[in-house]
Amino acid sequence: MDHLFFHNFFTVSGLNYVIFTLFFAGYLLTLRDRTAATRDLIFLFTIISSMALAYFLAYLIPRPIFAYHRWISVAVSLYGTSHVSLFLLNYPEPIWPRFRKIYFWSTFVISSIVTLAFVYQSLSAPKVYEFDGHYYDVDLPVLGRIVGAVILLYVLFFVITGVIRIVRAKKRFPLVVMLLAFLFIVFVPGIFNLLNRLNLLDREVFQTIWNISGVAGAFVFLVIYVNHMTERTTLLMKLYAISLVTVLLILQAVNFHLLRDREGMYDSLQVQKGYRAIVDQTYRSEDLSCIARVNADGTSSVVYEGEAETLPGLCRQSSVQQAAQRVLQRYLNGDSVAAIKATTAEALLPALSGTLNWLQSEKQRHSEAGMDESAHRQQILKDLKKGRNRIRRVRGIIERLPGADLRAEFQKAAETLKSDPFLAARLEAALTGPDDFFKDRSSLLALFPEPLSPGDRGYGLDRQAAAHEDPLDGKYITYYLSSGQQLYQVDFRYEAYRSFLNEGSFVMNNLQLGVTVLIMLGYPIFFLGALLQPLRSLLGGVETVNRGDLNVQVPVKIEDEIGFLTRNFNSMVDSIRTAREELREYADQLEQRVIERTEELQNTLVEVRSLKEVQDGDYFLTSLLLRPLSANHVPEDSPCIVDFVVKQKKQFTFRRWKEEIGGDLCTAHRIVLRGRPYIFAVNADAMGKSIQGAGGALVLGAVIESLVERTKYSELDRELLPEKWLKLAFVELHRVFESFDGSMLVSLIMSLIDEETGFVYFINAEHPLPVLVRDGQASFIEQAEPLRKLGMTGMSGFISIQTISLQIGDTLIFGSDGKDDLVMGEKDGVRIINEDESLFLSIAARTQGNPSQMAQILSEQYELMDDLSLLSIRYQPDSDEHRRRRAVSRQLKENIEAVRSGSIEPHEGIQLLLKGLSEYPENLQLHKQLASLYLKTGQYGRAIIHMEKYLRFRPEDDEMLYRLFLLMKKRNLLARAAEYGEIYHLRHPDDRRVTKELMEVYARLNNKVREEKFRKRLETMQEG
């Protein structure tokens, strides 16, 4: 052997990995105050670099002694993979110290036992040369699989640990990327290693994946860890790390492509040499070992053979493979299987039966599928190329079979391969063949030659030369070349192949080492003046300032980003120095300035207190003015029990009085309209806070008092119907506030409650919906279109009055929006505002409408955001009086029923009912039935009398009200008809019937203004 060292792609990649991991470990060693996680990484990447170095030496020096590199690779794989979990248990901070200790010692013991067992077994195991990896290995297939399984178990554990840390971490991204990087470094190579040990994958593929996946994973891990670690480091070391790993990663990609191209170049050159040697018998290259011509019958004759000293090649030891290649060539050129069998040497047919049977079965299968001859042979060629790896798998299994009983062991191993159609015929031919097939491994291997296409490279081992002094002797590169109808086997020395690859790989390794040295030595020189010295000067200035010396100026050497920072640092130091001098001067005069400032503050405080007292005086006077206006003037004997609570948001203290001020107002009075007592109740909320809202409430209260007093002394006002009085009162209030041009607005509910019947008339001007509490349940009284606030300019249209009839025990509640504007609590420093309107309903139902209790719950359980006012009206009439109006004798009930059923003549019925009316003058049914009988008999005047008396006690009967309106219109009592029609229209402003009738009434009364207003209203309703 001319050389001791033979470089190739694996040595280049291995050296790249060695530099990569060693630098990473060295970089981490430079950190100060290293954490436990960093120490774990130093250990991990140090042993990984030792494994990479072991592989590098095994690839570099192809000698049997280096088969023991597996000691290092097995130990590192076990200890390293188990150590990943320890890192994850320590990063970003240590957890589960007791479990970590148990895990460390458990995995250490298991790894040590497996490693020692491997070392012991390898001492007596045969050493084989792996052509697919170009290195020596110890032949321990079973133990190798066990090692792979243990590694995968460790991988599973560190994946579980990583997932737990990711779930618990605040910053998940670094941990996710690190876990993925570890999977590339450990898990991906582990999977491919196990596949290789199971003969499912070439060693060459595994080594390629191990290098590329490991370098890529380590690169990603380094970038993430450097940017998220907490240890102190230097900028230069970060530049080292990122620059070196980036360059090495790029070189790894370049190496892969360049050396793959060189492999292809070698095949091209050797094929050219082979063809030239075939046609030119005078041409024999130095690395040529032998040439054999394969005859049509499968036999061969040696055309050229090197001398024993120059290694004669395998041309005389490859008879079965030569015959198999010739069979495939003839079949692909058009010969049939039968023709091939007929012309093939009989001695070779048993060994070729597997190949011939496979061709026969494929021919039959393709014919049945309708495939023509050309397509069939193209498919055979594709199957041969794909089947090469499967033949290699079978050969790998054979090479690792125990030697006691080859037939039995092979039969057992073949069970898992019989499902493959490409292998089934070959396996069957071998298992049913003579015992000569199983006399040794070489005989069995000969039955499974690799199918090589022209120009494909094959490897061969001369087992007779295995004990030669040179470990590369007896190893050959084989090509099968077609020349016309002839087939030739051409062998070249394997050592020449390694020497050819060594030329390019040696340069790439030198380049890697050179780049590493250049970066390690060149960076300090390059960055000394451009980066390091300016940074050190700036850091020196910072340290000087930290010691308290502000008389420092850092020189600006280079006008770049560091120069910009330095200039701004000098400016900052100048500013601090100036400020400190001013502060010192200020401190010298501090005592005098404190006295002066204290005097100024005292004078300001006296002035503020004086202004505050004046303001509180204004507040106090306003609250005194509001107090009589917000009062309950309903007598205690009234059947309508009125109660209210007002809690203003603004509270203040004036001298010894504690008061409150705001815009909420509640007031209640008794007034008499047409001889009937009514309760006039108002709940209002004036716009604005404190004094502004109080001003609006003061104006509102004064006008309401004026309305009430005027009604007491004005005969004209007392004769108004309740709907008319309520409408005029609202109009008057609106006009007062409209004069403020929108600067003072009021929302309110104003109501009239008939004390005798409990019938309620009310107007809602953009105020919260009233609440009715009946039979222990609270509900809103809905309204289609509430009026706008008092004082809103541009209001037009008709006023609507809502009505509701209270039953005995009912409670009607009016309240301002303070009952809903509540702070429920806080979440993350943000107040939670109430958005549930039904909350107040539950409180109203729970307290049965008691204002004091409702206000107490709202103020104690929640934070009020606005003024709060609640007014309740409980209808509790005299039950005896209520029953008296509805009580009649049994005889009178029978008479009323007889009149209603029509079994008595109208005139007779009138007499009977009049007799009953003398006994029960306020009975509703008597007045209703009399009105009906008078209408039937044409006595309209008397009907009107009884209809009005009926409506006195049942004002909620809108149908009777409408009939009375129409009757008066018919009787030409137009003024009274207009009055009752207006009342009905106030209750039902969208009723087209009454709108049209009122227009006609006012036309007959010659009231053009009202006629035109109702005409426009009717047109608007028809358009809608």
TrEMBL record:
Residues 529-581 form the HAMP domain. The chain crosses the membrane at residues 6-29, 41-62, 68-90, 102-123, 143-164, 176-196, 208-227, 239-259. It holds the Pfam family HAMP. Residues 573-607 form a coiled coil. Keywords: Coiled coil, Hydrolase, Membrane, TPR repeat, Transmembrane, Transmembrane helix. One of its GO terms (biological process) is signal transduction. InterPro entries: Bact_Sigma-Reg (IPR052016), HAMP_dom (IPR003660), PPM-type-like_dom_sf (IPR036457), PPM-type_phosphatase-like_dom (IPR001932), TPR-like_helical_dom_sf (IPR011990), TPR_rpt (IPR019734). Gene3D superfamilies: 6.10.340.10, PPM-type phosphatase domain, Tetratricopeptide repeat domain. GO terms for molecular function: phosphatase activity. TPR repeats lie at residues 924-957. GO terms for cellular component: membrane. This is SpoIIE family protein phosphatase. It comes from Leptonema illini.
